[in-house]
Amino acid sequence: MKIVGQLTGGVVHDFNNILTVIAGTIEILQEGVADRPELAAVAGLIAEAAARGSDLTAHLLAFSRGQPSQPRDVDINALLIEAARLLRPTLGEQIEIDSVPAIGVPHVLADPSRLMAAILELAIMARDAMQDGGKLTLQAASAVPEAGVAGAANACAAGDHVVIAISACGYGISADDPDRTFADLGMISDFIAQSGGHIRVCRDAGRGASVEIGLPRAAGSLQPVARDAGKTRFEGGGEAILVVEDDAMVRKYVVAQVQSLGYLTFPAASASEALAIIDTGKKIDLLFTDIMMPGTINGRQLALDALNRRPQLKVLYTSGYAEKTLVHDRRLDAGALLLAKPYRKADLARMIRIALAA
C-alpha cells in the first residue's frame, strides 16, 4: 500500500490543485445563485462531489505517508459507515461487511484521514487472512482503559476514551497460526501512539481475530469542520502577500481569492520570480508558497532564501502532497504552517490571519 501511495502521490498533487479551484469557485457560484433554489441545488451537488474527492485524496495521501497529522474532532460512527462503503468494492463479495453504529459514542480526537487509512489497512489484512470468505465487523464503544493494557496509560489523562474494534471471522483464518490475521501493525501502532491512544490484538484460534484501537475522546468544545461556506464570514486585511504557485489555473484562483479578502497581492510562478519580487524592495508581509514546484528550488528552500533577505517575513505553505519537505515522522516541522490542498476560502482566510499573527 505504501508503494501504491508513493506512485499515486504526483497524481494526487495535481488532482488536489484541480479540486482547490473547483471547491473554491463553486463557493462563489453558490453565493450568486442563493436566491434560485434549482441552481443552488445543482451548485450544492458540485460542492458535495468536490468534498468527496477531497476526502478520497486525503485517504490516498494517508496511505502514501505524504500527509502530516492534523488531529480534529472525528465522528467515529460516521467514519466507520464511510469505511464500510469504501471497503465493499475492495474486499469482494466473499467478505461480508457489518458496520455497527453505537448510540452515545463520543467523538475522538485524531487525524480522520490517517484513522481511515489505518482501518482500511486492517480490513485488507483481514481479507487476506480469510481466503475462503468471512465476515468483517466494524464497531465502536465508549470504554475506560483496563489495567495492564499496553499503552493504556497514554490513552488519555482522564481515562475516558473510545474503542474501535475491527473484527475478522472466517474459515480461511489458520487455527495453527492466528497471528497472521493482523501481522504487521508497525505503522498503525505508531499513529495510534502519536494520537495518545493504544492498540491491542485479541485472537481466538480457528475462529477469528480482532484489533481494538483506543483513542482519547474529543473535548466538548471541539466542533466538526463545517462545509457550509454560504454562512461563513471571512476575515481579511490590508497586508501585502506574495503568492507563489506554478500552476497557472490555481495561481489565478488564489490571487483572486486573496484580493477579495482585501490584501495586496504579488503573484509569482516560480521561486526565482518570487525572489526577484522580494529583491525589488516592495513591502511584503507574507510569503504564501506552494511546496512542490518545478526547478531546483522548492517552497521550503524559497522560504529560507526569502527569510535570509527579510527576517521579519511571515511564511504560509500550501501543498497537495507535502511528502518529506515539511513532514518528518508524520508531523510538520516545528513552527511551519501548512494549508493543505484542496482548501476553501474560509480556510484560506483563517490561515492567512494565523500566519500574519505568528
- The level 1 CATH classification of the largest domain is Alpha Beta
CATH topology of the largest domain: Heat Shock Protein 90
Strand content: 15-25%
Sheet with most strands: strand arrangement: 2-4-5-7-6
| Structural class determined from secondary elements | alpha/beta
Our Rg estimate from Cα atoms comes to 23 Å
Weakly predicted, low-confidence segments: 145-159, 172-181, 221-231
Order of helices and strands: HHEHEEHEEHEEEHEHEHEEEEH
Mean pLDDT: 77
Major beta-sheet overview: 5 strands, mixed
Give the second-level CATH assignment, the architecture of the largest domain.
2-Layer Sandwich
CATH homology group of the largest domain? Histidine kinase-like ATPase, C-terminal domain
Q: If helices are DSSP runs of H or I spanning 4 or more residues, what is the number of helices? A: 9
Helical residue percent band = 40-55%
Which term fits the overall shape?
A: elongated
What assembly state would you assign to the polypeptide chains in this entry? single chain
How many structural domains are formed by the residues? 3
Q: Report the span from N to C terminus.
A: 37 Å
Task: Supply the key terms.
Rossmann fold; five-stranded parallel sheet; alpha/beta; 3 domains
What does this structure look like?
The chain is of the alpha/beta class. It has 3 domains: 2-64; 76-216, Histidine kinase-like ATPase, C-terminal domain (Heat Shock Protein 90); 229-357, Rossmann fold (3-Layer(aba) Sandwich). It is 41% helix and 21% strand. The protein is built from 9 helices and 14 strands. It has a 5-stranded mixed β-sheet with strand order 2-4-5-7-6, covered by helices on one side. Strands 9-8-10-11-14 form a 5-stranded parallel β-sheet, sandwiched between helices. The longest helix is centred in the first third of the chain and has 31 residues, at 2-32. The radius of gyration is 23 Å and the shape is elongated.
